[in-house]
Inverse folding.
């Protein structure tokens, strides 16, 4: 049996994911691999480096730092999330990733990005964390219109959620036959066509494949929801999701809300811990 953890994105809704992961880490829940998209990639790396609590800690500590994220950062750098600070200074100096544990942990860690020139998903396995590899995580979480494309290894990349929001099928093709999927939307959620598409088309007129991916994202996302529901019925997938819509916006940095959503994730995992252990054969 090959056990996988699949993490969708959702910006600061990912604090729910962080809470679930921390509860599982503290209960020594094992996986052979993790795949993350956008915030799922940014936060999910901490499972491989075995650092429960880190996601909440650095988001609270730097929430008001203009170098981290926000309008001032966008105007100064062209990115809503400061690329140098958030993906290099913070994880390598201020709240360090445990690089040695990440590298020596045999668990695989994969990230999903979207190719700017094709609109298709690009998958990348990270075996270590350094300046170059952190740019793959940055690319996975770089939202269009508020981020510059990330140029790396011959690609131009942006947020992976536009091409493969919930990469369960990707992991199954790699041989992961027992998967836990953490969602940041409640059961029954369906995505609609993104509002303001005429403006998006105008702003993305130089990136037509990204514009096309955004226009079709709700169709892709809802197909993936149907797929994971089918896999859950077949018994090879366990879904963990919030019971209600999470009370935080994807770019909201209110400390009380972050802590509340994080605790919601912890509570959800705690309530299902015995089910999780039985499902994974722990």
């Amino acid at each position: 049996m090959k056990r996988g953890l699949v993490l969708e994105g959702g910006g600061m809704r990912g604090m729910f994911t962080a809470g679930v992961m921390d509860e599982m880490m503290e209960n020594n829940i094992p996986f052979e691999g993790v795949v993350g998209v956008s915030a799922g990639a940014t936060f999910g790396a901490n499972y491989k480096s075995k650092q429960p609590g880190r996601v909440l800690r650095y988001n609270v500590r730097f929430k008001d730092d203009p170098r981290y994220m926000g309008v001032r950062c966008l105007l100064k750098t062209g990115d809503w999330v400061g690329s140098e600070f958030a993906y290099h200074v913070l994880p390598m100096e201020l709240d360090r990733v445990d690089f040695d544990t990440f590298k020596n942990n045999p668990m695989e860690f994969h990230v999903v990005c979207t190719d700017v020139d094709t609109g298709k998903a690009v998958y990348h396995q990270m075996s270590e964390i350094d300046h170059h590899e952190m740019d793959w995580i940055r690319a996975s979480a770089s939202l269009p219109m508020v981020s510059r494309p990330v140029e790396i290894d011959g690609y131009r990349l942006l947020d992976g959620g536009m091409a493969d929001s919930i990469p369960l099928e990707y992991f199954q093709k790699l041989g992961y036959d027992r998967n836990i999927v953490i969602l940041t939307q409640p059961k029954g959620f369906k995505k609609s066509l993104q509002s303001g598409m005429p403006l998006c088309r105008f702003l993305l007129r130089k990136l037509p494949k990204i514009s096309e991916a955004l226009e079709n994202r709700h169709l892709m996302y809802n197909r993936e929801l149907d797929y994971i529901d089918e896999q859950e019925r077949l018994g090879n997938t366990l879904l963990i999701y919030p019971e209600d819509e999470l009370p935080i916006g994807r770019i909201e940095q209110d400390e009380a809300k972050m802590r509340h959503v994080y605790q919601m994730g912890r509570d959800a995992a705690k309530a299902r811990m015995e089910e999780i252990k039985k499902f994974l054969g722990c």
Observations:
- The chain has a mean pLDDT of 96.
- Strands lie at 3-7, 33-37, 108-115, 121-125, 150-152, 155-159, 178-182, 237-240.
